[in-house]
Amino acid sequence: MEKIIKAYQRAYPYLFCLDECTGLQALERKAPRLPAQGDRPEYIEPEYVRHGTVSILSILQVSTGQVFTECIPDHTSSTITSSIRNHILQYDRSAELHYICDNYSSHSTEEFCLGIADLCGLDLPKLKTAHDRRQWLQSPEKRIIFHFLPTHGSWLNLIEIWFGILQQKALKDESFLSTTDLKNRIISFTETWDSDFAHPFKFSYSGEGLHEKVISRFTKWLQMHSPQLNVKFLEKQLRLISNLATSYWPKAKRKAWNVLYETLQGNNDFITAIIGTGKDLSAQLINLSKLLHCKLKAT
User: Fold this and answer.
1) How many angstroms separate the CA atoms of 158 and 101, rounded?
2) Are residues 45 and 20 in the same domain?
3) Measured between alpha carbons, how far is residue 223 from residues 170, 229, 271, 287 in Å?
């Protein structure tokens, strides 16, 4: 989260928010809508015919609000690479371009990296894993730099706001005779947006208070003794809380940490029942309790 917020705060001239919007349905309404009249609301016939779906890739320039959109046939690495290449080629080859995007696998394949290396005029080094490829894509040692969102971090991507505008203003409750009809509407709306409505987008959230919310939320889940809590989910939460306690202790009040520590101690049987025979997770829980105890004692 912090890396993405810093990218927004630095206000790069060429900072873009990138994402795909998939499964947009071309629904043909079986009857025309009846407009509102007097005290009678608008009526939209609920029956429709499905004509398939459309996927798009859109890129928002934060400083201007201009949006680049292409309708794409699939989400393969070749398609994504080609579409992003079309966007990059609009800018001078010396321009430093920054892209905020998620961790979707097609955003970090070898083919994708080869395409970016070519556009940067570089030879691609040997990158064995997806992690290595993402690290290279994030490297500031080249002119095209990617900033990857954290898991479940789509709320940090401003393109999601524009997708909402597109849905509300151009697609919601409309009738489309075919996928071609839907594609034309999307492209037409994007052109109208760029010419008449585009404006700078500002991300003002600083992350203040989120750390304590995460701690309090986890504490309440444990206190509820919910059967929905399982090993996999608990493991992710313990890893997250351990990271917060290690690196972000001052970001939350002592009271929140203390309530969590007491909850861990008081609900040990419940947590142990979830963990079962998982030795690694048991050790993780013990280490977290020790860490919280030491931190609380020190403060």
Assistant:
1) 10
2) yes
3) 45, 11, 10, 20
> Are residue 275 and residue 179 in the same domain, yes or no?
no
Q: Point out the domain boundary residue: 166, 197, 228.
A: 197
Q: Is 290 found in the same domain as 263? A: yes
State how far the Cα of 204 lies from the Cα of 242, in Å rounded to an integer.
28
pLDDT attached to residue 33: 86
Taking the C-alpha atoms of residue 257 and residue 295, their distance in angstroms, rounded to an integer, is: 9
Number of domains, the chain: 2
pLDDT in tens, 200-250: 999 999 888 999 999 999 999 999 998 888 988 999 999 999 999 999 999
Statement: residue 137 has pLDDT above 80:
yes
Give the model confidence (pLDDT) of 1-57 as tens digits. 999 999 999 989 999 999 999 999 999 999 888 889 989 998 888 899 999 999 999
CA–CA separation, 271 and 259 (whole Å): 16
The residue from 197, 221, 246 where one domain ends is 197
